[in-house]
Amino acid sequence: MRIDEVFERAGAARKLPVSFEIFPPKGELTLERGREVGSELAAFDPSFISVTYSAGGSGNKGATTKIAEAITAESGIPTVAHLTCISLFRDEAARKIEKLRAHGIENVLALRGDIPADDDRSNPHPADFRYAKDLIPLLVDAGFCVGAAAYPEGHIDCDDLDRSVRHLREKQDAGASFLVTQLFFDNEYFYRFRERADRAGITVPISAGVMPFMSKQQISRMVFMCGASLPSPVIKLLARFEDDPVALRQAGIDYACRQLEDLAEHGVDGLHVYTMNRADVASACMSAVRV
User: Fold this and answer.
1) Architecture of domain 3-289
2) Is 92 a catalytic residue?
3) Options 21, 69, 106, 153, the catalytic residue
4) Cα 39 vs. chain centroid, distance in angstroms?
5) Per-residue pLDDT of the chain (291 residues; tens, 9 = 90+)
6) Where along the chain do its domains lie?
7) Cα(82)–Cα(132) distance, rounded to whole angstroms?
């Protein structure tokens, strides 16, 4: 099923779409493990499951499509395969599109991807697609339902929130049918972002992305990679449970559940949970919003 249809049906049924994400830990996720995680997450009946590339656009490139195909075939849950365009040329893009079609993929999340560490950010690796908005029309013309990423606190490479939202509008204009946000730990950032998006004429559904923090190391890495802000309540939890990793992990899940509950009460279009590939995280988060 196409994700735009998922949102349409959910709206008609007055049901909040809740989706999960599978990611490759340490840059790698085998087909066998991906199918196992997909089966575990599908048991909670999410609206769809997205399957990422690894950090840096390497690692599980080859498995992403196969994992997405397997999850839908075995569970009936719609899936979204991520596709990055950094360093991508048109001939390779055409081959990837044919592979996606061959595996029955209907939905693609178009992303720029991480710029390789040895590249100049102002003059990135030569390719035919510099930004996700450049890749979106090709995917739309190929018949895919295309999603794109949104950044409630602005993209880490863009220090102007209004410009960041204008870039988001360009993705919609290029053909994106839905948006999924980067993680955030303070819902007020999302609400202010949603107001900006409304003023910019963004009308496609926006799923708010929430990731439970599982450890101090993990949250530090996410803040550095994504530019997400740490609100005072999170900092206090990190300090309180610094020497108790089990309690900190549970506190992170509980905090994410409160975020999700608040977002649901504020009428978001959808919720997207970065599950860390953990069934207990998916279970807790789903219980928080489907009572």
Assistant:
1) Alpha-Beta Barrel (3.20)
2) no
3) 21
4) 19
5) 999 999 999 999 999 999 999 987 655 678 888 899 999 999 999 999 999 865 444 444 568 899 999 999 999 999 999 999 988 899 999 999 999 999 999 999 999 987 665 555 555 555 788 899 999 999 999 999 999 999 999 887 877 888 899 999 999 999 999 999 999 999 999 999 999 999 999 999 999 999 999 888 888 888 888 888 999 999 999 999 989 999 999 999 999 999 999 999 999 999 999 999 999 999 999 999 975
6) 3-289
7) 11
